[in-house]
Structure to design on (218 residues):
């Protein structure tokens, strides 16, 4: 059973992470949710809050950096389903999170997905050893399949984020696809097809979360 969502309170959530970090060398937290739920927005707000008084405390390392390249998925039907679980590299993602948890390297470089080219770019995010909180966000952090459970095993907590309104979430997602170059019909077709199938899959994972959150408004 999914608990009643709590309203997003960025200072309180940041304080929760700092409390965990006081007893650990580094804390890794995941923000999970449907496409367009505002995961990247929450991750950015959390990191800004954590870095406000102590720059360098936190960094965002998104799951989207582990999209398989367009050239890889072009050979089969995954090109029409980009964003589905099998269009990512969860084992590579888990391995990177494991390096971040181990705190062996002075610096870890993580990939970043660039919407303007619709492909990941290697080594685009710098995570120094001094960083105490790593926030990662993505659709499948609570997926029950073994390869995704290896991702979950590297995270101290995973929070599930709900949008305040599903119709607005879909509208914002269509607008985002258009903003990055998709024709209106293509954007709408992708969101109402592939993205909404993925959203239904992700929604079933909410009971696995440590916290369920909801934006109070947009």
């Amino acid at each position: 059973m999914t608990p009643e969502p709590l309203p997003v309170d960025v200072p309180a959530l940041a304080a929760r992470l700092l409390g965990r970090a006081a007893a650990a060398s580094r804390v890794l937290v995941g923000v999970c949710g449907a496409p367009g739920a505002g995961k990247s927005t929450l991750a950015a707000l959390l990191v800004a809050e954590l870095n406000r008084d102590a720059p360098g405390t936190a960094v965002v390392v998104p799951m989207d950096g582990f999209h398989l390249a367009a050239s890889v998925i072009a050979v089969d039907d995954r090109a029409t389903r980009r964003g589905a679980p099998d269009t990512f590299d969860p084992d590579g993602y888990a391995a990177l999170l494991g390096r971040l948890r181990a705190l062996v390297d002075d610096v870890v470089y993580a990939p970043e997905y660039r919407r303007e080219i619709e492909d990941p770019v290697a080594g685009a995010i710098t995570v120094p050893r001094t960083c105490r909180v790593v926030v990662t966000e993505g659709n499948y952090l609570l997926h029950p399949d073994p390869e995704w459970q290896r991702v979950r095993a590297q995270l101290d907590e995973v929070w599930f984020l709900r949008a305040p309104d599903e119709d607005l979430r879909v509208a914002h997602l269509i607008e985002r696809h258009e903003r990055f170059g998709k024709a209106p019909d293509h954007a709408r077709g992708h969101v109402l097809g592939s993205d909404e199938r993925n959203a239904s899959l992700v929604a079933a994972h909410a009971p696995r979360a440590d916290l369920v959150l909801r934006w109070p408004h947009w």
Remarks:
- The two ends are 26 Å apart (CA to CA).
